[in-house]
């Protein structure tokens, strides 16, 4: 388990399912997703130390460790929907959770119904580092990040306000647009710019006097090389000499030697 592990999901899955998970539940699911190898035929039982997961989240209070069994129990109860053509699939995230007493280990397994959206992906899919979501504070930020990330290659996307509210499961919480804008759009915009590899601007599109659509302009944030990384690159280049470099160096050394010999 590592913050640099990669989360892989089909774009269809990201754009056609809606679920209501707490921020901690989302981080647990995405951490588990980062352990999946997309080329596998089937999901495996994914085992990790609870302490390692809490370290990833930056949680130092060990009393919080007991929250994980409660969280996995809730995740197996929470059913969400995936719409596909004329069908609606209702499924839970996890099919099982196994705890070995005194070991501090947990073994989790995804529902097999999620295989088409996370394994052997043939269509468009999105990959990102787990680190992009681990520091997020708003429950809407991981979901908003995924929606925009899977459209990053298009640089922009237009969405109905009601459609976005539904995807984020915020339709009943923020039915008024101004509240939705302040509590969700502006908050996630601030977070993504600060801690993720993308940020966005948005334009409001009105029907009459009402904002009915949003156009998101998505920007990629290029990672800055650290001085340590640059030093490694330079050192690597210096070590990898070509045969021509060696020949030139020998010729130079020979000339210097001859010059030294003829010098009185």
Automatic annotation (TrEMBL):
**Record domain Initiator Rep protein WH1: where:** 6-149
- Which SUPFAM superfamilies does the annotation name? Winged helix' DNA-binding domain
Q: Which GO terms describe its biological process?
A: DNA replication initiation
Q: Which GO terms describe its molecular function?
A: DNA-directed DNA polymerase activity
Domain of life of the organism encoding this protein:
Bacteria
User: Which family does the similarity line name?
Assistant: Belongs to the initiator RepB protein family.
What protein name is recorded for this chain? Replication initiation protein
Its lineage opens with: Bacteria, Bacillati, Bacillota, Clostridia, Eubacteriales
């Amino acid at each position: 388990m590592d913050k640099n592990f990669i989360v892989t999901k089909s774009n269809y899955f990201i754009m056609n399912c809606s679920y209501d998970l707490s921020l901690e539940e989302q981080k647990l699911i995405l951490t588990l997703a980062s352990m999946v190898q997309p080329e596998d035929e089937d999901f495996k039982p994914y085992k990790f130390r609870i302490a390692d997961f809490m370290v990833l989240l930056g949680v130092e209070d060990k009393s919080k460790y007991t929250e994980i069994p409660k969280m996995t129990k809730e995740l197996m109860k929470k059913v969400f929907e995936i719409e596909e053509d004329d069908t609606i699939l209702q499924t839970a995230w996890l099919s099982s959770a196994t705890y070995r007493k005194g070991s501090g280990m947990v073994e989790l397994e995804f529902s097999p119904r999620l295989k088409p959206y996370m394994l052997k992906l043939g269509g468009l899919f999105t990959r990102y580092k787990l680190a992009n979501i681990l520091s997020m504070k708003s429950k809407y930020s991981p979901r908003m990040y995924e929606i925009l990330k899977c459209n990053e290659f298009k640089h922009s996307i237009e969405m109905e306000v009601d459609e976005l509210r539904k995807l984020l499961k915020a339709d009943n919480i923020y039915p008024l647009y101004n509240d939705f804008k302040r509590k969700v759009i502006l908050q996630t915009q601030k977070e993504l710019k600060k801690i993720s590899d993308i940020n966005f601007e948005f334009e409001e599109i009105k029907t009459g006097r009402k904002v009915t659509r949003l156009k998101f302009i998505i920007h990629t944030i290029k990672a800055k090389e650290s001085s340590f990384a640059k030093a490694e690159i330079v050192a690597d280049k210096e070590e990898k000499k070509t045969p021509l470099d060696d020949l030139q160096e020998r010729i130079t050394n020979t000339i210097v030697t001859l010059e030294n010999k003829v010098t009185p």
